[in-house]
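To fix ideas, we close by showing one paired sequence and structure record:
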Amino acid sequence: EVGRRHDLPKINILDAKACLNDEVPEKYRGMDRYVARKAIVADLDALGLLDKIDDHTLMVPYGDRSNDVIEPWLTDQWYVDAPTLAKPAIEAVERGQTQFVPKTWDKTYFEWMRNIQPWCISRQLWWGHQIPAWYTPDGEIFVAHDEEEAYELARAKHGQDIVLTRDEDVLDTWFSSGLWPFSTLGWPEETQELARHYKTDVLVTAFDIIFFWVARMMMMGLHFMKDVPFHTVYVHALVRDEHGAKMSKSKGNVVDPLGLIDEYGADALRFTLAAMAAQGRDVKLSTSRVEGYRNFGTKLWNAARFCEMNECVRTADFDASKVEQTLNQWIVGEVQKTADKITEEIEGYRFNEAANATYRFIWNIFCDWYVELAKPLLQGDDEAAKAETRATAAWVLDQATTLLHPFMPFLTEELWQKTGEVGTPRAAMLMLSEWPRHTGLVDAKAEAEMDWVIRLITEVRSVRAEMNVPAGAKVPLILKGANAATEERLARHDGLLCRMARLSNISISAELPEGSLQFVIDEATGGLPIADVIDLSAEKERLQKAMAKLDGEIKKIDGKLGNEKFISKAPQAVINEQRERKATAEAEKAKLADALAKLQAAG
């Protein structure tokens, strides 16, 4: 590069064996490079021309296989005029014909493409696509599709047969790969496959080959096909270990995906990577996350077993917009909202948001709440309500299975086939079924009522957990300041609330009993008298001890983070871990302080 900037002549001083050639003084000709260097230094010293010898730190390139030092050596090579090809490829991204997701990567693309150099496409390897060029003994070149055509070209020019030798080099891997979007579809013939599949929609790739592969495909596609090869380039995150370090064999932190698949299943690994693939962030992969999502798949399977045991069978005439039970009106509305959310996130390439929305719906809304809230209806005496709930549960299970399919294709396809053995016959495999798109299923009144039920149960459970109320102990709930709407809701859901919140009874009063733990639910204040089920003094003491322990932990972390020596020498990942531990401890302390305040207010 220095020589090119100063327009210096390009001179080869080495032969193929790294010995000095005839371009150097006669004394050094034929010398090995290492011997010659020492001889030149000695001669300079003898002539009094050597000023000093200093150590110089530099990056010495070594061959991957030979482990020998690589020297610059000029040879005849084949080049592509990359600067000319790059212009339309740059303009295509500038015009929005192809977009990068996340958009920040187009800056990387432009930086490389606007500074691109002629591209050497010949490689001295034993494998690859051999360069289609043949040489005459005097160096004349014939480029042809095959050897027969090359000889025909030579005969046509010289009027006689001439011995031709094919170029021994092969094409650069990225040259061949750059042709992939159309060369695999029968090009240059105008095949049906080429017409149908070029251009394609989305290329999913890593940031480190934007220049090597993406840019090459853009240049080749625009040159040969006169169109971009894809409208979107989705640049996925780099998968790191659970501490955020890049995986490498030397560190011993490489996570083998096949090992994870053997232990937890391909679906669990696939969902993990999707759920953690936030745009612009690296994935910190840990086996505990994969295990957790394996359990998530099991959760849906268990929900399917619940539906089977309760005779929740699909019916051909089921209309989700016609359900009458408040619980069922709520859940079909949640299906619509979740399907809309997942669709929006997938179309926006926010796969982590889509995966997490799927998780929240299946685990929290369907399994944790709907299944539990549906039990009284399924076990009750109202046959119409029971039949509607069975059909609704079966429909929701189908919807959940479909929404999860892009992230867990194997489990969901198996579940689809299993649940299809009874009820209305399946029209197709799950992978060929229509994606859920619903309108008119959200009932605002049902949504508000079930939201209130869930929040009330959650508040009671939270207070019980904070105060270590035994799981088997039932306590009364008193509501103060409840309006007419709340009273009506209590009347409709009294049994359900008592069952799920472990309450002995629910009542409305102008005042709360002394010693009640209080919480707010909309306009009302709830009170739980727990003095008869726990020792208030002992519980206060427990909370104070736990807070003191957290204070000690926070102080210890502050000592590290305030130590300049620690901050300057510790890896950033370790520093971040300490900060995360402090934030967790502070959040836990705040939670305990809130519980203690409630106890102290109760007396």
